[in-house]
Amino acid sequence: MKDDTEKAVKLTARERRFIKFSSVEFDGQLYMTPQDFLESVVEQEPRPRLKRKTLTENDIQQIKDITPPLKKGSSQMFRNLRDKGIISYTEYLFLLSILTKPKSGFKIAFNMFDTDGNQRVDKTEFLVMEKIFIGAWKDKRGIALED
Description:
Blueprint: H1 13-21, E1 24-26, E2 29-31, H2 34-42, E3 53-54, H3 57-66, H4 77-81, H5 89-100, H6 103-113, H7 123-141
Parallel strand pairs: 1-3
Antiparallel strand pairs: 1-2
């Protein structure tokens, strides 16, 4: 009988795609760059690479320093950032849902995030939804939830 570490974990197609296209790692977690995300949407296979880049605390701080404020966002942001940003799996799912939902579905989803009705999703509102998504993901896999 195999122990838990030897059991194969069933991954969804989106999880496999995220892992396949993720080119950076930080603190044991895989992340995509904005460029990786764009490629995951339009390409069949990721660009060739020898291995994932492991980011340091300093790298993360540099990414934060160059991230434009919300009011400076543009439709070209992902193209301009290229490899100067990171996207978690939860953020990847959120971005994919925006791309694949019709406008009416997006409005419903936005209103679920925008709990105070100010037509903006602030960090607190986003983190509540992120916690829900992570909880559902862990529950699906039988992973204990931490408080």
